[in-house]
Specification:
Radius of gyration: 26 Å
Distance between the termini: 46 Å
Strand content: 15-25%
Structural class: alpha+beta
Helix content: 25-40%
Number of domains: 3
Largest sheet: 4 strands, mixed
Length: 729
């Protein structure tokens, strides 16, 4: 113990010496020129070994061996400290009228946003909500249905009405960022797809028991060693206009048109199917640019009749069926697409005539047709979005028996009046809400009697009689803070969110963020429990913390794997037993790398002040006199949101308090609109456009049931969608 204390004192003294020698700003008043780091070189230095390990995983001869190599890759990704996992969805105090597991219950894809099968109560006041005890009974019935495999064994509607509840037929919720398109295959943003997935049905979909079931496809056959899928489509599915009339029958050509349009649009979905569906890579590389293979060589075709679809894969892909619920495999109506100016071909789409192309415009709900449970009838940005049920007396929606809601409405809420929104929930306008300390809704719900019995220590027993509060499920979505290693933007094009840094400070920050030990110092100094507790309260400060990118229990090994040592990356030999969770393997390889990070959920597995200070010392030694202190880090926040503002202030206090404001200075850069806030990071089109040094407003939800759905997003050279949140590509 004495040795540790002595080392710490030496460390502090050394830091003081370094600061004394390199803490002065240049005396010249001239603006120091700033040059953005080379993207390719920066990626190779930070994540080159990671990408090489991903490539090695693709060559594995079994799925289990592939998972082991993915675990090694993730250990390298986390150890690089180019980003810091923060939280996942859920884990919050919640009150709700929605019965659990009545929407698709699955870790990946977009089906969890499908509302047609939702069962909910209606009414106003406390007693219209589902109690904590009732929710537990519903979950027990759901588990019994999971065990039996029969969805009919879970009948929440009968249970709720038996308890005296009235069932809702319309569902209303809020939104803060509206869709920028109503073309489901031309977007990779969840804010678009969460609306559109209710209006477009694909080949298959998940139910509330996590079972994959037929949708437009009534059955299918797998052949050619798992490389060929033949889907037979139902003939009672139709496209409906926004106004309700039938437009045409759904056919296999609609799926083919949707797939080609998805590839042509290059909106961030195409990379998901490269190397999976036959011929996609060649089509994207050459179509419309001379010697084109044309789409005819892509393995996505109409089969033996108008209602048969054939998909051919490059190789057997074990997780392919789980991909089919994601947007890239959704159809568009070929007949309608062509009628409103739709064109095919990568170059032809890029150079389309926007005067005649009128498909999927967010400004016009009639610019698309819909084959799902609902049709889009209203879309007014920053006001209201509404979908209403499809079907006519002559040609009803094919899955009418599973549709519980007649309509779904999203009402704009910019987050500025949280107590008013809470009261709208209580009054019955909205079905439920999460509760927040910083927004004052936890205290209000306690006052209103939602929390049950108050204990002697002042806390509440939410399991007690009379409680309506529960802790919501966490999910497989992973949020994180990205560290911008090649910043290219210091204010938005409209002049807002301008960095306060001068040229020298920009150069200093860039050099510091390229230093791995500096990134680690920031990552390990971030007390995420305190930061998270600002909005959630101390009791739930850890319930949604996440410490890795892939959900730690996303997949498990089916058999034993004997993994060889890897001297290059300092991984030792290990034997992993059948049933080993993915996160357990990542943990082992992090330990091989000498990392202190703990990957299990619901703990702050990164924060370690002693390690953070040691890494800061190492960084300052390595940077020497090439930078001036303090290093300035810009953090963008949305000022109308009290929660976002409180977290930004907390981050500044935590980092400066841990490492010293004389070494690291956090600049809080205000944005007054959600448009500006998301333009800085989440909606930045590429790495060069990211206007931040650290941005924790991004996250990733898996598209299919394989770790690559997360890990491939950090591939280099523009192949990975999320590298832009670390300032690259």
């Amino acid at each position: 113990m004495k040795k540790s204390k002595f080392g710490y004192l030496v460390l502090l003294s050394a830091l003081a010496v370094i600061l004394a020698s390199c803490g002065k700003k240049p005396s010249s008043s001239a603006e120091v020129p700033y040059t953005r780091a080379d993207e390719g070189t920066t990626y190779t230095e930070a994540l080159g070994a990671y990408e090489a390990k991903l490539d090695a995983a693709l060559q594995a001869d079994t799925v289990d061996k592939k998972f082991v190599l993915y675990a090694q890759a993730e250990a390298l990704l986390l150890e690089s400290a180019v980003f810091v996992p923060t939280t996942t969805d859920g884990g919050a105090y919640t009150i709700s009228r929605v019965a659990p597991r009545t929407v698709p219950y699955v870790q990946w894809g977009s089906d969890t946003d499908r509302f047609k099968s939702m069962v909910a109560t209606k009414g106003s006041g406390k007693t219209s909500f589902i109690t904590h005890a009732q929710r537990n009974q519903l979950l027990a019935a759901w588990q019994a249905a999971v065990d039996s495999g029969d969805p009919a064994d879970y009948d929440p509607a009968t249970m709720l009405t038996g308890w005296g509840h009235t069932l809702a037929t319309d569902y209303k919720l809020t939104f803060s960022t509206g869709p920028v398109t109503i073309d489901i295959v031309n977007t990779s943003h969840q804010t678009d797809s969460e609306i559109l997935v209710n209006c477009v049905d694909g080949l298959v979909e998940y139910n509330g028991l996590s079972q994959l079931k037929p949708a437009i496809a009534k059955d299918w056959v797998v052949s050619d060693g798992g490389k060929k899928y033949t889907f037979n489509l139902r003939e009672d599915a139709y496209w409906y206009k926004s106004t309700g009339e039938v437009y045409s029958q759904v056919k296999a050509e609609d799926f083919v048109a949707g797939f080609q349009h998805m590839l042509d649009a290059k909106a961030g979905l195409e990379w998901l199917v490269e190397g999976v569906v036959k011929g996609v890579s060649e089509y994207l590389e050459t179509d419309g640019k001379g010697d084109s293979p044309t789409f005819a060589n892509v393995g996505y075709k109409v089969g033996a009749n108008a209602h048969q679809l054939v998909i051919e894969l490059e190789r057997e892909t074990s997780y392919f069926p789980t991909m089919l619920t994601y947007s890239c495999f959704m159809p568009i109506c070929k007949q309608y697409f062509e009628a409103v100016g739709g064109v095919y071909g990568v170059d032809k789409y890029a150079n389309r005539d926007t005067a005649t192309y009128k498909f999927g415009l967010a400004t016009d709900v009639t610019s698309n047709v819909y084959n799902g449970a609902y049709r889009l009838t209203k879309l007014t940005d920053k006001s209201e979005i509404k979908i209403e049920k499809t079907g006519t007396a002559e040609k009803p929606y094919y899955d009418e028996a599973d549709r519980r809601m007649d309509s779904v409405t999203w009402v704009y809420d910019d987050g500025q009046t949280p107590l008013q929104t809470y009261q709208s929930v209580v009054d019955g306008t909205y079905a439920g809400t999460g509760l927040s300390k910083s927004l004052g809704t936890i205290e209000k719900a306690q006052t209103d009697g939602f929390f049950g019995t108050k204990k002697a220590d002042g806390t509440y027993d939410i399991t007690s009689e009379g409680s309506y509060v529960y802790i919501s499920d966490t999910t497989s979505v992973s949020f994180f803070g990205g560290l911008n290693v090649a910043r290219g933007t210091f204010e938005l094009t409209n002049g807002n969110a301008k960095s306060p840094k001068d040229g020298q400070a920009k150069v200093d920050t860039a050099k510091a963020l390229l230093n791995k030990n500096f990134r680690k110092a920031i990552a390990y100094a971030w007390d995420r429990t305190t930061w998270n507790g600002v909005t959630r309260g101390a009791e739930l400060a850890k319930t949604n913390l996440r410490n890795m990118y892939v959900h730690p229990e996303f997949v498990r090994l089916e058999g034993e794997v004997v993994a060889a040592a890897d001297a290059t990356n300092k991984f030792f030999a290990h034997t992993f037993a059948a049933g080993t969770a993915y996160g357990e393997m990542v943990q082992q390889y992090l330990e091989d790398l000498g990392s202190h990070i703990q990957v299990a959920d619901k703990e702050d597995g990164w924060y370690n002040l002693d390690v953070a200070k040691a890494r800061m010392y190492d960084a300052m030694q390595e940077l020497g006199t090439t930078v001036s202190y303090p290093i300035q880090l810009d953090v963008v926040y949305y000022s109308p949101s009290s929660g976002n503002t409180a977290q930004a202030q907390s981050f500044k206090q935590l980092i400066e308090g841990a490492l010293g404001a004389d070494k690291v200075q956090v600049n809080l850069v205000e944005t007054a609109t959600t448009d500006d806030f998301y333009a800085c990071g989440y909606r930045a089109p590429d790495g060069a456009s990211g206007n931040f040094d650290i941005f924790y407003g991004s996250g990733w939800g898996p598209d299919y049931g394989d770790p690559s759905t997360y890990l491939d997003t950090f591939r280099g050279n523009g192949e990975g969608y999320m590298t832009k949140v670390i300032g690259l590509f």
